[in-house]
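Most newcomers find our protein records easier to grasp once they have seen one. Sequence and backbone structure share a record, each on its own labelled line. To make this concrete, we reproduce a full record directly below:
***
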Amino acid sequence: MFQLGDRDLATHLQRSQLLREGKTLSQVTRSLCEHLGIGCELLPMSDMPVRTEVETEQGAMPFQTYFVREQCGPRVRGFRFAGVDTAPPQSSFSARLEDPELGLVVICPSNPFVSVDPILALPGVLDALQACPAPVVAVSPIVGGRALKGPAAKMLAELGLETSAQAVATRYQGLVDTFVLDETDVTLAPAIRELDMDVLCLPTVMKTAADKRRLAHSILQALCPSALASGERE
C-alpha cells in the first residue's frame, strides 16, 4: 500500500519539476523550506545524484522499489550507492564540518544502512567528520532490540548482526565520540564504552514535538551547553 499523503506527493512533484528545470538540489531544498516555513537551514548531502540500491535475495533493486512496492519484504544482503564515488559533498555542508566554531555534530536516530551510510560514503566526508573540531554524537535508532520506525532492525538481523543498540554503536566505532542510548538499554552502556565511546542514557523515544525538544535540549546540555546559552541570549 502506498501510504504517502497528498502533501507528501505534492512536495515530491514540486521537487522533481524544479530539478527538471535545472535547479540544483540545494536550490530546490531552499525553495521548499521557504514555502513550508522551515526556519533552520537544511542542506542536502550532495547536489549530484546518488541512488541507493538494495541487494536482496530477489536481486538488486532501487531503494524505492524495496521500500514502497515490496514493503521491505525481501531479505537484504547488502547495499550499493550508485554514483557516490563521483558525487562531491555539498559545499556548505563541507564548510560546516571545517568550521572552527562548530560546536557539535549529531547523527540522528536514523537507519545506519540507508540513511547515514550514503552520507559517510561521499568522498572525504568520513575523514572530515573524524577531523572536525566538534565532538560527534550518535543517537541509537534501536530501542530495546527494536526499531521504532522503519526496517533497521530487520536489516541488522538479515545481515547477520545483533538487533541491538550495541550493534549500531559498533558500526560507528572510530567516528563517534558519544553514543546516546535509550534508558531501556542502560545495561549495554559498559560494552559500548569499551568501543572507546562515552555513553549518555536518555529517554530517546519521541512521540511528540515536546519529546523532540526535550531530547535535543538534553544532548546539548550534556555536550554543548554553549549552544543553549547562545540560544537563551538570542
User: Anything to note?
Assistant: The radius of gyration is 19 Å. The longest strand covers residues 76-82.
